[in-house]
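I need you to check the entry underneath: sequence plus fold tokens. Let me know what the token row says about the fold.

>
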Amino acid sequence: MAEYLIWLNGKYIPRNQAKISMLDRGFRLGDVVFDTERTFNGKVFKLRDHLERLYHSLQYMRIDPGMTMDDMEQLTLDVVQNNEPNRPPGDDYMITQIVTRGQADSLAPSPGGAKVTPDLKANVSIWIDPIDFVGHSRLYRDGGHVVIPKTRALSSDQVDAKVKHFNRLHFVLAQMEVADVDPDAFPVLLDTDGNLSESTGFNFFIIKDGKLRTPGDQNILQGITRTTVLEIATQLGIPFTCENNLQPYDAYTADEAFLCNTPSCILPIVKIDNRILGDGSPGPITKQLMAACEEMVGLNFVDQADRRSQDAH
């Protein structure tokens, strides 16, 4: 397979050769925002929704990407088009826009004060990344596990969770902590008040007595797939609530649960902190939502994952 091409500051570069300076504030300080989409049959899903979130993050962080949202949209579509010859039959991938504040000659405070936002030229890149279809195939079929770690989500008093950024050391700590308990499990972090928030790159849903329940947006990223799930639930007549005070008890006593994000769509969860949900297999409402999501995106992503997993073996 040919190497995917990424766009970096106006040039196309093979993915494995892309570089930025180690003096870049994104590398040195995590001074960077991003957003990620995926393709279905080579077509980007909800690109504009993702870019609106990206530009809200940029505005919040006072980073100027040096281009309009329309420009970023067209560039993203161009990157996808340029990589079509590299896409294996039946495959899809993720697309990520990454914007750092740029390269600074020094990170030390200036003599006249701590000037933390100098006039820098942002580094802008648009990446192509493969999807782990092998892992997805197993999870779609059998369901995954969740462990609730002691590591907490960042408080909105520190960094607003609506900003999609790469300051994710707490996610790494949560993943390591969870791996000590269950190497196959996903973390679902609590907020500083002990309420359920989100996983590492996923939003979290539980289902109880036929109703969807998900953490409110006080301490979570407002996921595009989360919004899509709520749109589908409305169309199917499935009631839902977004609650800021869901607690581990609610997860332990749920009938079903699932995680959702852009590359994975909907991943069923069948065990939380070693407590089995329902009969230990993906639940009926979760599977109903998955089928409706497949219809919306125009692709049976479960079959796609199975085929790509078989190809890998």
Summary: The mean pLDDT is 94. The chain has two domains: 5-130, 135-312.
